[in-house]
Amino acid sequence: MYGKAFAPEYQGALTSLSVNSSLEDVLAAGIEQLRAAERAGRHAEAARSGLAVAEAQRRLGRIADADLAWKASYRAARRAEDTAGRAWALWSGGTLARQRGEFALARRLLGLAAELGERGGDVVVRGYSLAGLAETGRIQGDYEAVGRLHEQLLAEARRRGEARHTVWALSGIAQMHRNTGSYDTAFAMFEEAARIAADADDRRGHAWALRGLADLASVRDGDTERALALLSEAESTCRAMNLSSALAYNHKMRGNVLYRAGRHAEARELYEEALAEFRAMSEPRGEALARLGLAKSLARLGRDRAETAAELDDLARVLERTGLRHAREMVARAQEEFGVRAEAVR
């Protein structure tokens, strides 16, 4: 049995904020409490309020501001000798590093966060940090290394009845099954994630699960209209909560659905929109995936073969450097699909 979803990253004076609070509202409340704490010299409270500011900025795609905020939160926690507060700040910094495509830094910060969480007796930040490490490996395509950790974290979340963490773990494992061709298993897990998220009023988790269901409705069932309807439902949540990254990935997925349906001109427009959104928030993984979709759409619309070859080759180099194994394999399949020679990656 799961309770209502809650947001443990909203701490101190901000614990009354909901997991579904608009990020602009979270940011405004966080800044207000942070300034009050700083004026009063309450370093522990400044660290906790600063964490909410950092997370709101990150999720809004304001990368530079998020970077300043998590570091300030860490410094405040250190001044307060708050070990768990330091762990939460490092978790935020590691999550931001992953979003920016800095995977080695993400692993280092998240690993430190997990250690400090254990030392500080905060099982939640330890779990979130281990989850961050698992997600980093999953995004890079290292499924064998992180699959067991995902399963372990799912079991822990189920045992504690933590709806939000259960939804995250289910969606992550489902994505790995989807990417390795186990569509039925993936669909069932996304369905469970969506159901738990809805019951727990976790609108963010519900939107991500709907995106996974839409992908499978398209790729497994060929049901374009159902996929688009699911994405529209998820998009309304993304807009209501100002979820910039989730909205960009929603638009990229809508492009995927349209591309599979042979609606290449419409797909091109969605990929262009998603690409602009990812670039605005400096999210290289999303940018690379949107570039890939755009390159494929343009090729179907008659783009010069040499230009397609050059674009895909450049993408392959970018993904090789950043270590995004699954995305690199997607580029290789596109090169095969369009019969363009892949140059040796240097």
From TrEMBL:
Known SMART domains for this protein? TPR (SM00028)
Which SUPFAM superfamilies does the entry mention? TPR-like
Q: Which domain of life is it from?
A: Bacteria
Any Pfam family the entry gives: TPR_10
Q: Which Gene3D superfamilies match?
A: Tetratricopeptide repeat domain
What InterPro entries is this protein classified in?
Answer: TPR-like_helical_dom_sf, TPR_rpt
Q: Please identify the protein, giving its name as recorded.
A: Tetratricopeptide repeat protein
